[in-house]
Amino acid sequence: MPVIDINTDTENLTMTVTAEFAAPIERVWHAYSDPRQLERFWGPPGWPARFETWNHTIGGRADYSMSGPRGETSRAYWEFLEINEPRGFSVLDGFRDDDGNPTADLPAMRMDFTFESAGEGTRMVTSSRFDSLEALQQVIDMGVIEGTRMAMAQIDAVLRDLREYAQGKGTRVEELDDTHVRITRLVDGPLDLVWRAYTEPELIKKWMLGPDGWEMTECEVGLKTGDRYRNSWAPVGDTEGEAFGFEGEMLLVEPPRRAVSNERMQGTDGPDVLNDVNFYEEDGATLITVLMEFPDKDTRDMILGTGMADGMEESYKRLEREVLAA
């Protein structure tokens, strides 16, 4: 976990984040000065950032938005106040409306990012300064402390070569809190083909089968926000088990990088599980990240206890073998 401390000072109206990275200062600077890299970790899981404009000069501005899993959007901006490559930079960070104007009822803050070498790595100190105690408390109430920890936990995948970070690691499951789980798997294939493998029924039936001995008997996909989908599986031959299936609604579809859906067992009233699937390609390999949101801890533990991760790993191996290498 890169974040080692988050401290709020109500007397001086500041919030200070201290983090350490296993990367040299020049590499960390590049991650913070390249919008395509920055947006991979600036938003917390479930709220990825997207920088729409980027004028990285003193007095320049960067506009970004963070998109929630149910279509919510939060818009913000940076105004660059100081730039001292590779030692740090300062911005005015605030919220904006649809027209790009600062939002008066939400707080703005000055953020000073400072990078310094620490052995073979880098220490970052980010100090945010507020105009009032009310503004500081408003940001805290919005969940910025936990959101910062979760967002920064994504940076390791950015600072390292993607294949070095994930290839050969299989399907990895991280319990983020009582109701959120992140699952990652690097597959050896380009983004466009991986997206097709997730959205074209003839390809889905080749790989999304879990352990050997099962077949997909029904595959109705949702290709746009609001579409319904339905998938069913049944055992083949002597394989033990009963047929089952899932159904739900597509909450957000952004080809070819993100698909969010709710999911429930067919023939039941739930509980619903939210699946937020994101795709990122680098050097011909695609990182698949699934953020699952459960209604409670008991549901999380019950579903993880079914051997779901093992079944996903078998499916991903089949994806590489039957679709991506075909």
From TrEMBL:
Domain Activator of Hsp90 ATPase homologue 1/2-like C-terminal, chain residue ranges per copy: 22-159, 190-321
Domain of life: Bacteria
Family stated for the protein in its record: Belongs to the AHA1 family.
UniProt protein name: SRPBCC family protein
Organism: Microbacterium bandirmense
The organism's taxonomic lineage, starting at the top: Bacteria, Bacillati, Actinomycetota, Actinomycetes, Micrococcales
